[in-house]
Amino acid sequence: MTPARQRQKAARPECRRAKRIVVKVGSSTLADGGDVRGRVVSELCRQIAALQDDGREVVLVSSGAIAVGSHKLGWEQPGRTIPTLQAAAAVGQIGLMQLYQRRFERLGRAVGQVLVTRVGLEDRGRFLNARHCLLELLRLGALPIVNENDTVATDEIRFGDNDNLSATVVNLVAADLLVILTDVEGLHEARPPKSGPLPPLIPVVDRLTPEIERAASGSHTDFGRGGMTTKLEAVRSAAHSGAATVVCRGNRRDVLLDVAAGEPVGTLFRSGEKLASRKHWLAYTARTRGTLVVDPGAARALVDRGRSLLPAGVVDVQGRFDVGDAVACVEPGGRELARGLVAYSAAEVTRIQGRPTREIARVLGYSNGDEVIHRNDLVLVEPP
Ligand code: GLU
Predict the structure, then answer these.
(1) Whether the CB of 150 sits within 6 Å of ligand 1
(2) What is the Å distance from ligand 1's center to 162 Cα?
(3) What is the domain range of residue 340?
(4) Residue 318 is part of a domain; what is its CATH number?
(5) Phi and psi for 381 in degrees, rounded to 5?
């Protein structure tokens, strides 16, 4: 190996060392207008098996249910209405899993299908349930293959794109690396033109900056939903789980093996400051049931001084929420500052808002503690 090659390899230690890897494969890689590319699936399975043999644990997040189902149903385009998408997914998901199962059976290994919904994972109990299932499959040496349960998903409640779903899976299993296999080489320095040479590829991104966000451009295809923008959302979420992400072309030979060997493939996004898993869930997965508007003093206490939210700092209560629900904390202008799990219901906070802590028990007749949101149950929201 040349010294230059060695240096490049050394530049991606997080990939070489990754023990637990989430691999996300998009519809545009797996299928051509809904027609499954058998060779791509075989290559993917061969490489995943090789990674398992190398002692890595892999979770596969596979799109393609809607694309494959639409094709099987003889449609030229995927359906547009929710019921047609649901029906296509119902037909396609079986076909997809059959493909994986056959390939892995030949390799002497088991696969397990895990279908999740956004609403399900918003619930902390069900989120932990999904985690237990995935970890057990990994312990058994079976490959978990995850997709959204598109048969019951509607627009308001769906993940919609498997990029964001794959980042949630990263938090579920505490993966070290997310590999997003797609139909582009990675992130280019500028939006790729319709024709002509591509702008240079960005090999490594240390931090998501506004310039990087601008460089991300849509690469939408008919059947796959996520462009580069949803990939960056996934990158941000994975980074807060302490995982690096590689976005790369899925049909490149040995792509997964090269990524895992630390080769300079696609664009590597380094991991960021790791949030505890529960805080990550709160920031990225939980659905907020209401909003607390806080005064400037409380805003500073939360953001700059790492404090809890006390009743005195609350100026308005919006929505209906119960003890333990997730709520957003916003400043009077409406900008979201933090999310947290409340110790009091909306009705209770309305009664104690603006009051000193010592009055809680007198006003309510009981106290759940001094804080409306305890610091341990609070996570700051990064400015966009
Ligand atoms: N869950 C969708 C499917 O399997 C894919 C969503 C996406 O393309 O990101 O068809």
Answers:
(1) yes
(2) 6
(3) 288-380
(4) 2.30.130.10
(5) -100, 130
